[in-house]
Design brief:
This protein is mostly helical. The chain is built from six helices and no strands. The protein folds into two domains: 53 residues, Arc Repressor Mutant, subunit A (Orthogonal Bundle); 59 residues, no CATH class. This is HTH psq-type domain-containing protein.
Length: 124
């Protein structure tokens, strides 16, 4: 399997724009360092610009953004939230909304926590 490449939404928009102006797909993909097959998927509509690799998150992005805002507000008031408090809060949300999760007892673990911090770098 080929290594995963990182590219920004802006890069993808620019490469799609270049193809729209007549640049060949293979040339544009190489020039903007975007995988050709990914570019084809975006142009054909098989995947949107918003599509991300990997499984979907347990909480939708807007809920994660609300959590991020709460964490930052608490931090501004000199009350940094502890890891266990965040995990307890997420577990409570999951239980209250009766969502199916891959978590044991509906409580996220270390992997979810580290992924959450990667998705919300302003927190760490």
């Amino acid at each position: 399997m080929a290594p995963r490449r990182n590219y920004t939404k802006e890069q993808m928009s620019k490469v799609i724009d270049a193809v729209g102006r007549g640049m060949a797909i293979a040339t544009a993909a190489k020039a903007f360092s975007v995988p050709r097959t990914t570019l084809l998927d975006k142009i054909s509509g098989r995947s949107s610009l918003e599509t991300k690799m990997g499984p979907k998150t347990v909480l939708p992005q807007h809920e994660e953004n609300i959590l991020e805002d709460c964490i930052m507000s608490l931090s501004d008031m000199h009350y940094p939230i502890k890891k266990d408090e965040l995990l307890d809060s997420v577990q409570h949300i999951i239980q209250q909304t009766k969502r199916e999760t891959p978590f044991v007892n509906g409580r996220p673990g270390k992997k979810w926590f580290s992924s959450f911090l990667k998705r919300h770098p302003i927190i760490s």
